[in-house]
Here is the input.
Amino acid sequence: AIRTDGLSASLAPLTLGVAGYGNVARGVWHILDRLPVQVIEPDDLAGVAVDPAASRHVIYAATFREEHIAASLAAGQPFDLQRYYQHPEEFQPAFEPYLPYLDVLVNAIYWTPQYPRLVTKTYLRDAMAGDALRLQVIGDISCDIDGAIECTVRATEAGEPCFVYDPLTDETTDGVAGRGVVDMAVDILPSELPRDASEDFSRVLAEFIPALATADYSAPFAELALPAPIKRAVITHRGELTPDYRYLLQYL
Here is the structure.
């Protein structure tokens, strides 16, 4: 419908940003590639977003990398990716200037508190108070509570995946209607298997059920009678890591 009929004038031009470029982001683009998307650079957003000649028949989408998210505290210092990860305290947030030109933001980055946020409550509040809030929808796939998307104040479930965050009251309302920004914040998305994949997995697993049900789990792991594919996947047995997974101890 977008390609043939175009978006309504109130939505066009529709701009979308994908923050990140790892496996999660590739999954996002796997879906976007099935839509009429025109890929642009982040620095082109400002021009496209206000261009009256921009197409109503495409979604303008850009990928944001670390250099769009953070900048060195030292004036004029070019962005250094390795230094950013080694010394994040030497960097400051740089993403906010893009927000006035984004309708949709998909968050697919790894984040910890030492790194800058993508969206802050302060920005959302000030933008809404000044009638300058363009951002309508956030797909927070990473879903770190109070994290890169500060308005992700809680996780949602698959049956009710979205809430609306009101920047002026700092409150949320389930669903997609109301004043503010719609935030999709399902934190268990990896468990959302497609029906066909779930059925195929169940079919393959069925042949192992008898062995799983009759195994003597009190036996030492070496003597545990399980089918090889299942036994290779056992991470812990009787409260201890199995031999193939003992390397995990260094991370515990």
Q: What stands out?
A: The chain has two domains: 2-191, 195-251. Residues 36 and 227 are 47 Å apart (CA to CA). The two ends are 50 Å apart (CA to CA). The first helix runs from residue 2 to 5.
